[in-house]
Amino acid sequence: MTDPGTPVGGSALPPPPPPLPPEAQTTGGPVPHSADEALEIGRNHFPPVGSPGGPTGLFVHEFDEGYLIHAGWPLPEDPSAPPAQPGGSNVVIAKEDGEVTFLPNFPPPEAVKLYHRLRANRPG
Question: What residue spans carry the region label Disordered (predicted)?
C-alpha cells in the first residue's frame, strides 16, 4: 500500500517553491551617480545608525542595475533566542531612474537575484 502523499511508482516530490512576493513598493526619486549618493538616499529608509533599535551600519552593494542598501544589526544577547523584531528589508535604488524598491532582508546575492526576477516580471 502506498502513502497517500506519495505518487505510485515514485517518491514524494518536494513542495513547489513559494510564489514570488508581490512586487515591492516602489517610488521614484533622485538618480544616484555613485554608491555614496545611493547610500545617502538609502539612509532615508532606515532608522538612524546607532539609534536604539537601529542598525549598526548601512552598506552598499553595487550591481548592474542599481545599488542594494542593507543594514547591519547588533548581535543578539542570546543568539539561540528568536529575534525580538524579525524581518527587515533591503532597499534597491535603480541606476536608471532612481526608483526605490524594498526587498526582503536576504543576503546581497539573493536580494539581487530577486530584484532581477521582479524587474523581469514587470508589466510593460
Answer: 1-58
- Per-residue pLDDT reduced to its tens digit, 74-107: 877 888 887 766 667 899 999 999 999 999 989 9
Q: What is the pLDDT of residue 25?
A: 47
The range of the structural domain enclosing residue 60 comes to: 26-74+87-120
Residues 6+ apart with CB under 8 A from 96: 31, 65
| Cα distance between residue 112 and residue 120, in whole Å | 12
At 107, list the grid cell.
543576503
Predicted confidence (pLDDT) at residue 17 exceeds the cutoff of 60: no
In a domain, 96, yes or no: yes
Check residues 94 and 119 and name the one with the higher pLDDT.
Answer: 94
- Cα dihedral angle (51, 54, 57, 63), rounded to 10 degrees? -140
Q: In what order do the strands lie in the sheet with 26-27?
A: 26-27, 100-104, 89-94, 66-72, 57-63
- Which residue type is seen at 7? P
Q: How many structural domains is the chain composed of?
A: 1
